[in-house]
Amino acid sequence: MGGGDGGGGGGGGGGGVVKDVGSKAELDEALHGAAPVLVHFWASWCEASKQMDQVFAHLATDFPRALFLRVEAEEQPEISEAYAVAAVPYFVFLKDGKSVDKLEGANPSILANKVAKVAGSTSLVESASPASLGIAAGPTVLEAVKDMVKENNSSKNENANSDQSGLTTRLWQLVNSHPVFLFMKGSPEQPRCGFSRQVVEILKDEGVEFGSFDILTDNEVREGMKKFSNWPTFPQLFCKGELLGGGDIAVAMHESGELKDVFRNHGVPINSKETKVAESAKDVSETSIPEKGGGISDSMGLNVELASRLRTLVNSSPVIVFMKGRPEEPKCGFSHKVIEILQQEKVAYESFDILSDEEVRQGLKIFSNWSSYPQLYIGGELIGGSDIMMEMQKSGELKKILAEKGIVPKVTLEDRLKNLVTSSPVMLFMKGTPDAPRCGFSSKVVNALQDEGISFGSFDILTNEEIRQGLKTYSNWPTYPQLYYKGELIGGCDIVLELQNSGELKSTLSESILQKEQKAGQQSEWKGRRSDVRQTLHQLCSGFGP
């Protein structure tokens, strides 16, 4: 990685090195200088960040008069929030202390082009392609980027020249490469989702050796496996080339003892529990046991009390996010993104501000085997951070997991009202029911509709105060009854009776939307009358309750 101590504020550039920024004050000081400033927001867990950091370091060598800075996004939330960083890698380009450009994602050629625009010749305005990067960048970065492009092109050519049977062969070889094989997110040492971590723990508990493949590193394998196994999600567990299932199935088979039977029936070697217990006892005997009060948990190395507290926290709500800040005021772009996704999915959730409790902040990293924040848990299981959530939302996997866990989107009052007013082509909100109206106005509207032979649905607003009050705001109509046609408010009792007397009620409640639009010009006088009636009703009803 291209870190260093060079650069800093002042008129000169970075001298060909990348400097790590330790605080917002340090960044602000650097922006006071005359040199262009280029900032790379990165994360240690992100492979794309590491790759782009190499390119960034090469660019620093080729543009020594510019100041190249690096910010660890999650460790510097104040800076990340100031530049609206929601994903990494992320680059910001500044001149005279002002942001002039930005780049999100891993694209070496675009990065080189943007750097050249800010730090090199101002005459370069055309987009740099991999073949023309020599114009935008110096020899060092050109060589590095050419290598990356060569690798990418090589991969693409291989993909283009290999047909579907080639991929199928590769997948078959993978699933049969070990007696037990797991397709997962991340690695057994560092799972990238709670379900993958859970299956890894199960396999370790079963005492079987297994191979694994990180599907996050190869999209071709990831998408291909969904068709190969006819299983749309990950992890996927195979035994002797046969699919056993995903996380939930692995858990159920493990708990019932069926998984052990499958392994034995297929001749998979299993380490006996006696051996594991003996090894565990040996480990404990060789380890200095803390005195009373230490309470170290054998499984995680956490204080027993803290481990219990964390377990309670992650299970305190069906959906809980451990974040920096609060949902109303996130303290980092990643936390803000997770909250945004949960709101888009209309999920009810709880949150915990890890900045308010250092013990929880550090302990949860060990408990979850996940080194960064935010962390999302569903049903007590770790799902992952912002990058995993963005990916899962995009693929539809997040919605599926929520449904599998029985977590349904919360329905807002506006959603309920919208569903109600469109639940029937003609819908009447009234006091009482058509068979037993509870007020004279409702009774008159029911009679008018029945006299015209109009079928309609109804809702008794006396049975639900929330609907009763909410619909007044939704429709901007303060009294009942209220009559709707295809979700559009027609009006109250007086308007319905006026339409009936003029012979327009049946046609108004049966014509199509297109016909209504075509008649819009002809109905301007009627709309004016209806508006006058509304105003009069508002005035008459202002002194009376609904």
Automatic annotation (TrEMBL):
Drop me one GO molecular function for this one.
iron-sulfur cluster binding
Record Pfam families: Glutaredoxin (PF00462), Thioredoxin (PF00085)
Q: Which Gene Ontology terms of cellular component type are present?
A: cytosol; nucleus
Q: Which keywords does this Swiss-Prot/TrEMBL entry list?
A: Iron, Iron-sulfur, Metal-binding
Thioredoxin domain location is 24-115
Instruction: Tell me where in this chain the Glutaredoxin domain is found.
Output: 180-243, 319-383, 426-490
Name any Gene Ontology BP term.
Answer: intracellular iron ion homeostasis
Superkingdom of this entry's organism? Eukaryota
- Gene3D superfamilies reported for this sequence: Glutaredoxin
State its role: May only reduce GSH-thiol disulfides, but not protein disulfides.
User: Can you say what this protein is called?
Assistant: Glutaredoxin
Q: Which organism is it from?
A: Musa troglodytarum
Higher taxonomy: Eukaryota, Viridiplantae, Streptophyta, Embryophyta, Tracheophyta
